[in-house]
Amino acid sequence: MSQPGPPAEAPERLRQPPPPPQTPPLHGSRTICDRETTLPIKPFENSEPPPEVRKAESGAGKSESGVFPVLRLYPAFLYSGHLWEEMSSIKRSLNQEIISQFHYSAAEGDIARLTVILSHSPSLLNETSENGWTALMYAARNGHPDVVQFLLEKGCDRSIVNKSRQTALDIAKFWGYKHIANLLANAKGGMKPWFLTNEVEDCENYFSRTLLDRKSEKRNNSDWLLAKESHPATVYILFSDLNPLVTLGGNKESFQQPEVRLCQLNYTDIKNYLGQREKITLIFLGVELEMKKESFNYAGEVPREEEDGLVAWFALGIDPAAAEEFKQRHENCYFLHPPMPALLQLKEKEAGVVAQARSVLAWHSRYKFCPTCGSATKIEEGGYKRVCLKEDCPSLHGVHNTSYPRVDPVVIMQVIHPDGTKCLLGRQKRFPPGMFTCLAGFIEPGETIEDAVRREVEEESGVKVGHVQYVSCQPWPMPSSLMIGCLAVAVSTEIKVDKNEIEDARWFTREQVVDVLTKGKQQAFFVPPSRAIAHQLIKHWIGMNPNL
Domain boundaries in the chain? Predict the structure, then answer.
């Protein structure tokens, strides 16, 4: 990518104060930013002025601020029908004069004058000149870090691009002002970019929906759990090497993959495994959201006092040998493998159950020994806790996160170009050829979501990010992550890919992305399927344009 630079005429213009406006002699006058400017007024020949003029009082005055004056209104008989065009033109000229004074003060490094102007007219903060430059850009171009810091503290927008497609950060980098570039790159807060909406619709991503109430209060009730294990209505889902047992369904999804369904087993199907506790992992997942009246009557199989109408679900992990033996007895079932993209073929609500079960089972497979002392552990609380068997282990005193299933938070972000017209997508070497997706990375200890987004984007692509906005999240059971989806607005545009992180990163236009979403793999690249949060973040960005 070619190195950006400011417009050729900008440096020379910035070194000189703006020239005074060329206006003819006037009948009225007013003061703007301590400079005298006169207003041309033409006499009127007719006798009937507009009603607004008739109502206005004669005389001159100033606004309450004392800086921006009020136009002196003369008796109505002095005005012609062209006066209002004349006045509008004068007003526009005066606005440009004020903006020029503001930009000139930034270019000269005059914080005192900037403070006075902004105190009377804070809306000038992000006003642009004819070439699209802001006060922040002028301060960055002329090497005034104190002015840059002042404007950033006032909340100016770092993401604005001028007509040469540059941000203030691009300009500071081009002219070699490293300190200013660091200020612009690392500043937090500021105004939200104009193309971001405040409205974020509630979104339930794939793996987020479920048909169960987890009933966490039942996990310590060993008698209730034991009774539910043998209840005729209880549902078991079987796993081997974290792969769920499924069967083919009758429908097909829009992405042309066959829909698969969980094999819902009952107690008689798996009771032999329950007698071998040392070889299995049993997890209580919860109860169905809707109570089933038919579960109250099982012809005496369940004592009436034990019947509560709740249909419990358990996940059962077995070893590969037992799994192979089970498949031979159930030829219409198979273990779903590999997990990606196979797990994306499940029904939405069943996918949520699998995400829960797979993540907890993965934790058990990795933490069979105590992380504190290295001793063996046992499963308690319905599969949601591992307890150390060593009597004097510190983990037995108090609450320790090592005793419970872990979740790894991951930020995944749709990075938007400063002008809002492009997005940044990347790819790893292991991706299918042509696939690009949102950048992502793990949150580090002591790090906020926003800081993690900024760090990961810069590490992988070299692009600096300013504003970050949360959109939605998605459980990702590979093995147990929570994908935190965000929109991130870049404040620089140059891409420098870290090949140790990703293989490639590019800016894609809105039109390119729309074509990919509507025409799929007919295009030069493609994005993840709709059940991945990356796809939903991309669609969310596209949806911000009301014309689409």
Answer: 83-186, 212-249+259-291+309-367, 408-543
